[in-house]
Fold:
Amino acid sequence: MADKVLVLGGGFAGLESAIAARKAGFDVTMVSDRDYLYIYPISIWIPTREIGFGDVCLPLAETAGIHGFRLIAAPVAAVDAAAGKVRLGDGRTLGYDYLIIAVGAGKVPVPGMEHTLSICGPPAASLEIRDRIDSLIARGRGRIAVGFGGNPKDPSAVRGGPAFEFIFNLHNLLRKKGLRDNFELTLFAPMPKPGIRLGEDAYEMLVSWLGRMGIERRFGLKIKEFDKGGVVFEDGSRLESDLTMFIAAGRGHDLFMESDLPGNEAGFIRIDDHCRVEGCGNVFAVGDCAALEGPDWRAKQGHLAEVMARVAVENIRALAAGRAPVAGYRDKVSILCVMDFGNGAALVHRDENRAVVRPMPVVGHWLKKAWGAYWKLSRRKLCPRLL
Ligand SMILES: Cc1cc2nc3c(=O)[nH]c(=O)nc-3n(C[C@H](O)[C@H](O)[C@H](O)COP(=O)(O)OP(=O)(O)OC[C@H]3O[C@@H](n4cnc5c(N)ncnc54)[C@H](O)[C@@H]3O)c2cc1C
Structure:
């Protein structure tokens, strides 16, 4: 009988784990608290009505049927690695031969965060942001603040790219509607050079785009709190806004408070190069929930989540065959994104040898759209996978 692989989480990391483990012949069950995978990279267009909510969702039950794994749509409540058990929110307990944890990250709270909305949180928030933008457009004027937070305990968990993409797309939407001059757009972040992780050239490009689009900057100011009227910084200054879109930095998932897994200072699960949880022979952690090791500029990204999933499954195969794990993820850490600005994009790539940024006016936007369609079709086996 095939060994049982239990996958927790139905995002990029969880789905890739389940697909790879099925391909390797394991008996696979996935537990996800959502019955769809939310394709975050293309969700940036929901608030500007360029894409519908359904286009960003991949139904997991259908995908499970296509690839031959079981889906349990329920929240995981606790992991007891010592006992080899996972407890679900409804009280059920599941066992496994190998466990892959892929539940994503938690959020670093900031006081008053309930006055903000985020494109990086619960998917439904993107619809609320869309509706709030609609009503500001109907009013004909407004002030919109867009920002992201930091986590000094683990800078790899800072998510700034989507904030840039969101505000660039918003600028374009308002420009198309002839309303740009009636709106104040401001980007705020606590670090003095947000985006520098992508490399000096990419940072310069972002700053020059902000300038060209007339987007104000509040960089290098720590966020004290949010209130109904905007953002309050630690130096006492304020940023007034009618809508604040804020991306909190990541930290370990709350679930790990109820688990016996080793965490780093920020609460992410400690793993070795093989994606194996430290001190747990048959438990792996992949994607945003894991503590990444590597260069200072390392970042939690979807493509890396998929790499880690394949590494974990390769090592599970080795273990199941009585061999030592050899596959590693650390030499594959890189940044790869197509940063969209609504009517074009830039390809940003960074690895240990180089940091490249390649502006792609017009075509870049359609390339990112095409990637979204390809990703969804390929995971449903409706077109061949390139990787
Ligand atoms: C707006 C946005 C744009 C982005 N753009 C890019 C990009 O262009 N390129 C790129 O590479 N990366 C991008 N990223 C980052 C990328 O989306 C993440 O790195 C990736 O989603 C991580 O995948 P994951 O599976 O580890 O986590 P997640 O995608 O967060 O998935 C975790 C899954 O676990 C489930 N889950 C959570 N808690 C539980 C529980 N208790 N029980 C059961 N299930 C649970 C969730 O429902 C979810 O399905 C972007 C992110 C955002 C938010």
